[in-house]
Amino acid sequence: MKIKQELKEEVAGATRLFWEKGLTPGSDAGDTSLRDIETGLIYICPRPRPNVLRIPNWGVIKAEHIVVIDPDGKVVDDSGLLPTVEAPMHRAIYKARPDVNAVVHSHAIWSSAFAATGKNIPLILAEQSLHLGGEVICAAYGKVASKEIARNVVAALGKDKMAALMQNHGAVALGVNFEEAFIVSDFLEKGAQVALLGGLLGPLIVRKPSEILDESLR
Ligand SMILES: [Zn+2]
Q: Does the pTM exceed 0.85?
């Protein structure tokens, strides 16, 4: 199947942006991927390994580091690199969600605070309903790279949520493309921050999805 250099460039660029935005503290802590709608192939961050691939942080990643896998996880390019250990989770998300073509898996501060306590991020701002699909669910715990983490994250996302938390780990933000996935990721981080700060002022006013949009806009 045709491997597209421009999609490798796109994932490398998105991963550098991912680091610049502070969504990951270095490398091998969070990753991104993109599905080619045409071929179904997945372009994904590599697995840093001593003596094979040393990347001090995702801020310096290049297109040559991006790995291409098929939906079953088989590496189909000749980079000689392995995909990130969380590739099974990325694959499971794409399999369950045909509407999604980009995944940003972050280890960012504010959403990690919720992930560390196993708490959902409640629907407290209108934007969360519009961009995240409402309340963000914290997926049940699964070990790094396990089948459980993939299954639990897919369950927390359901059919239409665009973000989920990963207990004791991080978060995922989804989009039809990277542009959308980063918007989701930004609103996810902001929602977690406001929920934490707002909670210090008093009880949060939690809304139902049906209370957000005026009938005239539906
Ligand atoms: Zn991770």
A: yes
